[in-house]
Design brief:
- This protein has 20 helices and two strands.
- It is mainly α and about 500 residues long.
- The protein has one domain.
Length: about 500
């Protein structure tokens, strides 16, 4: 299944010579950005809502539009995360860690500009890797079994330390809270209900989107109300949207490294853009010369997760197209769209539908250029959101949060969950407990639990199966990397505390 450059070049001619296809890509990317900006209306939701509009049209038009929605939706979530500390998509939760502090410094426009450039770079790298290395990367993803998936989850959980601020203990406690929340609902293996207390709503566990909106949206509303009497409002420089060349050049290694990492993570079925964003952010912080500045508002902290999560778009398409295995929720919807149009993703899809496969490759690359154009063109408009009156601004955030939490399942209970989680997150922030580890635990918890138990069933309770170099070398590699990351961050934090203590002693003398 070798790559054919002749067919690929013909695919580019097919798209560029057909203005209708380019229009559909523009429609998809723009719609995705709009839906990504609105909390609760994720790229997955946007794709599901727009699938009916592809009926009666040539399949390629609809598929290119849906991929454009994916590309725009993942990027669009960063805009609301940067400007109002409410990520429009789960993968943007890592971006707001430095994006929102930049907006508070008056650099919201610059943060959006860096997010746009990093999204373009990451998305382009991911699309190119998908195009030229799909079969090879899909084969690597196919080797992942329960042991490897658990090790991946463990590696991701170790990244909590990198986003937990100054207290590792509080970060671990927050992560444990998130893991406990994931145990609510049906047991993934036995099917028995756990911690539901007889409530039908809890049988499927707490809905992810309402919890996400509560953690970051409602909590921010409470913080805004608290500070409203002080008269604080965010001022952003709207004249400086595009980052300077030296700023882009300074993070080039971070963007490229995050793009490769994001593509690889995205290509593993069951992971997706969320894990790619946090892993990229954590790695950027770990390898930075100034890790203590992360979380205070640095462009590197925006570039890393945005390059990672947008690269994961191409990565997630790899197993779906080559093996028929959806890499995340969006590609699961995309898989359904292909089936509706009478396609069967997998090796047969590559052999029998090259006239669709290669234009999809070319269309995903072109969508990155469209994203750069639309993102930068509309950046000034999006940045103006932070200049609203604080009272109106807070009311708009609250309204978007309520609408977003209700729109997923049209459930009023989801609204109450959002409000309750937001109140808890507000007090956690007041006590300096980070909430990001909770989000990461919610994403990785089910993945880790299911594959831990499956691996132990296969090995008859032998825990050494995860570190057996002969049976599971990939699992062993992930575990060793996780241990190394934990040790590195521990000693770095210890050194920082010793230096701070030394300065206090010197000032006292």
């Amino acid at each position: 299944m070798a790559f054919d450059f002749t067919i690929f070049s013909d695919a580019w001619l097919t798209i560029l010579s057909n203005p209708i296809l380019i229009v559909w890509i523009f429609v998809g990317v723009t719609s995705g950005i709009i839906m990504g900006c609105l909390p609760g209306l994720t790229a997955t939701t946007g794709c599901a809502l727009l699938i009916p509009f592809t009926f009666g049209r040539p399949p390629l038009e609809g598929l290119l539009m849906l991929m454009g929605v994916f590309v725009g939706g993942i990027y669009g979530g960063s805009i609301s995360g940067i400007l109002i500390r409410t990520p429009g998509t789960p993968s943007a939760a890592a971006t707001l860690l430095d994006g929102f502090p930049l907006a508070q410094k008056g650099l919201g426009g610059r943060a959006i500009g860096m997010s746009t450039v990093a999204s373009f770079v990451g998305g382009t790298v991911g699309a190119l890797i998908m195009t030229f290395m799909s079969p090879t990367i899909a084969e690597v993803g196919l080797k992942f079994g329960p042991a490897e998936f658990f090790a991946l989850a463990l590696f991701g959980m170790s990244m909590i330390i990198a986003v937990s601020g100054v207290s590792l203990l509080k970060g671990v406690i927050s992560a444990l809270v998130g893991l406990l929340v994931t145990t609510i609902g049906f047991d993934p293996l036995s099917g028995l209900p756990r911690f539901t207390f007889g409530q039908m709503y809890l049988l499927d566990g707490l809905s992810f989107i309402p919890v996400l909106i509560g953690l970051f949206g409602i909590a921010q509303v409470f913080r805004n109300i608290e500070k409203m009497g002080i008269g604080q409002r965010i001022k952003t420089d709207l004249t400086k949207i595009l980052p300077q060349f030296r700023e882009i050049w300074a993070v080039k290694v971070t963007m490229l490294k995050s793009a490769v990492m994001g593509t690889f993570i995205g290509s593993i079925p069951g992971t997706g853009c969320d894990i790619a964003a946090f892993a990229s952010y954590a790695e950027a912080k770990r390898s930075s010369k100034h890790p203590e500045k992360f979380g205070t508002g640095v462009l590197e902290g925006v570039a890393a997760p945005e390059a990672g999560n947008n690269a994961a778009v191409g990565g997630a398409m790899i197993p779906m197209l080559t093996l028929g295995i959806p890499g995340d929720a969006f590609t699961a919807v995309m898989l359904g769209a292909l089936t509706i149009h009478n396609f069967q993703p997998g090796p047969i899809f590559f052999r029998e539908n090259l006239d669709v496969v290669y234009p999809m490759f070319a269309g995903l690359i072109l969508a990155q250029a469209v994203l750069l154009f639309v993102g930068l063109l509309g950046a000034r408009f999006f940045a103006r959101l932070v200049s609203l009156d604080p009272r109106m601004f807070t009311a708009v955030i609250f309204l978007l949060c309520i609408i977003g939490s209700y729109a997923m399942q049209f459930s009023s209970t989801d609204v109450f969950v959002t409000l309750g989680v937001g109140l808890i997150a507000y007090f956690m922030d007041y006590l300096r407990f980070p909430v990001s580890p909770i989000l990461l635990a919610l994403i990785l918890g089910p993945l880790g639990e299911q594959n831990l138990r499956r691996a132990l069933q296969i090995s008859h309770g032998d825990f050494t199966t995860f570190i057996n170099p002969m049976e599971h070398p990939i699992s062993l590699a992930f575990i060793l990397i996780a241990i190394a990351a934990l040790a590195s961050m521990y000693f770095r934090l210890r050194k920082s505390r010793l230096e701070e203590l030394s300065r206090e002693i010197e000032s006292a003398e």
